[in-house]
Amino acid sequence: MTTGRSPDAPAGPHSAGSASQRGRTGRGVRDPFRWIIENPGTVDLIGFGTAAALMLLFGLGAGAIGWWVLFSVPMVLAGAVCRTRPLLGVIVIGVLAVSHVLVGIPVVAGDAMTFYAMFCAVAYGSTAVHLIGVAAGMLGVLVQASWFGIVALFGEYGGVGQAAITFVGLGIIGTITIIAIWALANLQRARVRQLALTRDRAEQAVREREQRTALAVADERARIAREMHDVVAHSLSVIIAQADGGRFVASQKPEKAVEVLGTIGETGRAALADMRSLLGVLRQQDETSFGPQPGPEQLPELLERVRAAGLEVDLESEGSLDQLPSSVGMSVFRLVQEALTNVLKHAGPGASASVRLVRGAEGLVIEVVDDGQGTDPTSDGLGHGLTGMRERMSVLGGTLQAGPLPSRGYRVRATVPLPADHGSPAEADGPASPYTTTDPGTSPGPAADDLRGETP
Fold first, then answer.
1. Which residue of 81, 126, 221, 241 has the lowest C-beta tally within 10 Å?
2. Is the pTM value of this prediction over 0.85?
């Protein structure tokens, strides 16, 4: 336990924070008031060192270096460590104060430093130093009162009564002085603690602001990454499927190759528009619009592109999808887009899919089911599609289940809660999907995500 370190000491944690602030503000020693506050040890050394030197020069000039100088000078010098090392200051000044009494010199000029040492012990020291400082002050009062009481007892005109009056009077005066110094020191201690607390709160506020900024940046990066993944993965999957089929069509039916190339061009242009929209956000071009954000109303167009890539897909909708919140509408589109992209990539040849949207009083249910091979044994499992879908649902407060069905195929099912004012008077859930199983033991869950070739 370091009992003698002051809260204002340069080596403390707050001074390190202040030093970093000086580096940030660029003021440093050019601000003298700041420098005085942040360097108490150096300031005290200069002040008390100058006082001790002047006292020594005064003694030399008077031509008499007496005991009062020999004791006073080191006591004044010891004051330089009282704020930064209050325990050391109390010990040095206390020993010197008792020593000059023992050699027959009851009072010296340096005795004033005993009050300063006690003040620093209470204001800047730990609890133990606080108690030691008060005890040393009371001991000094007792020593002085006893000395003058003895002098009064054996003096020429003294006696027991005079000695008692002197002892009691000096004891009361000394005790009052100690109490007054103790009260002032406690006020200073409270002020130091308040300043430290204010500084800590300011530093904590800075850290929290930086953390909030970092979290906001991370959230935005994750959002943009999801958008980029959905745009690029879907569009490239369609383009690759069309290109692979286009080679065969070009050799067998050249006239059909024009239709394939047209689908590739339309898909590429749509992907380019989405990419430009994302880049516009990154460049903070708030006033530039590259077209509306995708939503449920664009699902038929999406399904047409998927059908053109060779996947049979049906769309079933129950309840009105109008007036959905923009964030929900875009997430619905992206979820269906990603789910159908996974069907194209992993379901295998000859697969078909169905998309079902049900809007009820409790929210919106999105279900994409295919009758393909369910899992893709050739996948490396390094994709992020399911992770992105789950993050989208989590942001909206919804849930996502994805996994292979018991017999054949794969199902992605998401539930998104809707605000009360966006509710629909239609039935909540509607009829069950023909692909949905109610057996808890076979219901797909998050643990089956990696079987599709995605990283959960």
1. 221
2. no
